[in-house]
Specification:
Strand content: 25-35%
CATH topology: tRNA-splicing ligase RtcB
Number of helices: 14
Low-confidence stretches: none
Mean pLDDT: 96
Number of strands: 19
Distance between the termini: 38 Å
DNA sequence: ATGTAC
């Protein structure tokens, strides 16, 4: 595995058979994975062998090992040229993403009520593996609404306001969801988890705006220094997981029929224009809508708590997912092409002027929400014109230790105390769960953001610091 | 990420 430095923050993995395109890694020297100890760049090269892939197999500065595709990876295939879709290119947590809410309150105003807010959020947010949900859906019709219409359905049922949808990617729902392509088992798992945080790196965090880098853009996004915010990071729970499992299995079998060979079984895929490809994209869109409704319901809960304790409101800044495949139009070799863009641990970052942006954000570009590791900063970024990698950027800090390694490194320590020392109030989370998510298990989020900006993928708007966190 | 297992 040889890396050629093309420009600062951009490295190339030269194409060699059976790669169809080169690999491109956006990173600083310091953030580059150690090719001796880390297989994530081999995964970047393996993705480059997929039928129909165009331009390059991309890795973001937060790249790390994933199932088949690396996390922090972007790959686009040309639909008309037999391009494939791969469940491993989306990940198990379909449409996992981030939502940022801005309070009409500053940090000083929150301080006296912080414990009450945290107790309220901790008590009202269903979290952890399995157990509990905001919305106990009964029968298939409510769940169908969630799968077909995502946040739009949640708002229609009273869990939010119309303006929320203007600030959601795709206005809160992907259009081509096919609940019929979702297995009964996935539906069964999903029915009891609508409006729940989950576990692992998912969280609901109370934050404050610690620094603003671009005052005008921050103002347009509705953000100002010292302001209190709530960030929600969660996904499609057991439903998305089951859909990924179902379709990996189905595509493993289908590949022989399409005469597709991949260097790793975990890269199972099928042509976008095939029954398997169509069904996966329909099921994936249903899971994506489930994830968006999930974040909408947790928003509702947070608003109820804030209203009760502070008397104030929470306005949606933006909601964007970082695990998804989307059919998009991009210029490739001077031609407009219909592509299936896989973003796995990578965030869409639309440039200023893009038609899919809400009218009031059109001049400044899409808000990009980057959660840091627990107890560290999170960032608000903005899309920039002419960015590479199909308008995509990083999604977070990126793991450097496995969960097991992180738990071992925390042995004999008290993670609760360490977070208290950082002035972060914690609600929920097992000792082990916290140990797995300590900052030492992740790259430095600020270094990741510097590299994405240096690579021309996006630009900084604001840095947020955590005050309190609700964990699974 | 995940009813941390089919």
């Amino acid at each position: 595995m040889e890396l050629v430095e093309e420009s600062p923050y951009r490295f190339r993995i030269d194409r060699r058979d059976p790669m169809r395109v080169p690999g491109v890694v956006f990173a600083s020297e310091a953030l580059l994975p150690d090719v001796g100890a880390d297989r994530s760049l081999e995964q970047v090269a393996a993705v480059a062998t997929l039928p129909g892939i165009v331009d390059a197999s991309f890795a973001m500065p937060d790249v790390h090992l994933g199932y088949g595709f690396p996390i922090g990876g972007v790959a686009a295939t040309d639909v008309a040229a037999g391009g494939v879709v791969s469940p491993g290119g989306v990940g198990f947590d379909i449409s996992c993403g981030v939502r940022l809410l801005a309070a009409d309150l500053d940090l000083a105003g929150l301080r006296p009520r912080l414990e009450a807010v945290m107790d309220g959020l901790g008590g009202a947010t269903p979290r952890g593996a399995g157990r509990g949900a905001v919305w106990h859906v009964t029968g298939r019709s409510d769940l169908d609404g969630v799968l077909r219409e995502g946040s739009r359905y949640a708002v229609q049922r009273g869990f939010g306001v119309g303006r929320d949808l203007e600030r959601c990617e795709d206005h809160g729902a992907l259009d081509d969801a096919d609940p019929g392509a979702v297995s009964p088992r996935a539906v069964e798992r999903g029915a009891t988890q609508v409006g729940s945080l989950g576990s692992g790196n998912h969280f609901l965090e109370v934050q404050s705006v610690a620094e603003v880098y671009d005052h005008d853009v921050a103002t347009t996004f509705g953000l100002w220094p010292g302001q209190v915010c709530v960030m929600i990071h969660c996904g499609s729970r057991g439903l998305g997981h089951q859909i990924c499992t179902d379709y990996v299995r189905r595509m493993e079998k289908a590949m022989r029929r399409y005469d597709i060979q991949v260097p790793d079984r975990q890269l199972a895929c099928a042509p976008v224009e095939s029954p398997e490809g169509h069904d996966y994209l329909g099921a994936m869109a249903a899971a994506a809508n489930y994830a968006r409704a999930n974040r909408q319901l947790l928003t509702h809960v947070a608003r109820v708590v804030f209203r009760r304790v502070t008397g104030g409101n929470l306005d949606l800044v933006y909601d964007v997912s970082h695990n998804q495949a989307k059919i998009e139009t991009h210029g490739v070799d001077g031609e407009r092409r219909t592509l299936c863009v896989h973003r796995k641990g990578a965030t869409r970052a639309l440039p200023p002027g893009h038609p899919d942006l809400p009218a009031d954000l059109c001049d400044v570009g899409q808000p990009v929400l980057i959660p840091g590791s627990m107890g560290t900063a999170s960032y608000v970024l903005a899309g920039v014109p002419g960015a590479p990698a199909f308008a995509s950027t990083c999604h977070g800090a990126g793991r450097v230790q496995s969960r097991k390694q992180a738990v071992r490194a925390e042995r004999g320590q008290d993670p609760h105390r360490q977070l208290a020392a950082r002035d972060v109030a914690v609600r929920g989370a097992s000792r082990r769960g916290l140990a797995e998510e300590m900052p030492a298990a992740y790259k430095d989020i600020s270094a990741v953001v510097e590299a994405t900006e240096g690579a021309g993928l996006c630009r900084k708007v604001a840095r947020l610091m955590p005050i309190g966190v609700v964990k699974g």
